[in-house]
Amino acid sequence: PERRPSGASEASDGTIAGVSGSPVEMVFQEIPVFIYDAADHCTDCSRVTDTGMAKAPADMPTPMFDVSVSLDGAVLVTDAFREVCDDIDGVVFAPLEGAPGVSVLVADRIVRVEPFDSHIRTGPTCATCGEPRYVIRVGPLHLQPQDRLQPGFSRTDIGFGDTADFGSTQPVFLRPHVLIDRDTGRSLKAAGLLGIHLIAQPEPDT
């Protein structure tokens, strides 16, 4: 994968809404494919433990958007999206096997969410792998006070999703939320890419 260098950090007051840099959350159009079918996963709850090499299915549709997400949690981007990100920090792209011109996006910098955040709901623990069967978000998230959001791409240390969404035999990757700073959001929107959906938090008080 290609790695982009990390940028300078910015201060945080501990909440997503108050992080210096006004973070923006990226949300994605869903496409009806599974990418991680061959990934290592729990034999009981089906939660993916190691994504390994993602592979496009035989019926992979022509991408409708420059950024989208598979049913099992892979963020997929076109070459056009990658080109826009050449000068943006904190992002890794891995070509998707079997789908020319498509890559999997991973934000390679992590911001930690408060472990006892009241807006996170976790399901019962799987007896086999010891991980929650689901992790869902019901409101704004809070970062740990000592963490800092940097310019470019970041991701939460917690993945979200429900292993029961597609039945016990379908591997499911609990996907972290992707956060970007407001300037990165403007750059992506200005590029005219398809499928860019951003949830901007309020500007911090000055």
Verbal overview:
The chain has 206 residues and is mainly beta. It has two helices and 15 strands. The protein has helices at residues 79-84, 182-190; strands at 2-3, 24-27, 29-31, 40-41, 48-50, 67-70, 75-78, 91-95, 102-107, 110-111, 120-122, 134-137, 153-162, 175-180, 197-200. Strands 2, 10, 11, 12, 13, 14 and 15 form a seven-stranded mixed sheet that branches. A six-stranded mixed sheet has the order 1-8-9-7-6-3. Strand 4 (40-41) and strand 5 form a beta hairpin. It is globular and about 45 Å long. The model is unreliable at 1-14 and 202-206 (pLDDT under 50).
Summarize the structure.
By secondary structure, this protein is mainly beta.
Distance between the termini: 39 Å
Tally of helical segments: 2
Overall form: globular
Low-confidence stretches: 1-14, 202-206
As a percent range, the share of strand residues is 25-35%
The count of β-strands is 15
**What are the secondary-structure elements, in order, as H or E?**
EEEEEEEHEEEEEEEHE
Percent helix:
under 10%
- Main sheet overview: 7 strands, mixed
SS class: mainly beta
Indicate the mean pLDDT. 81
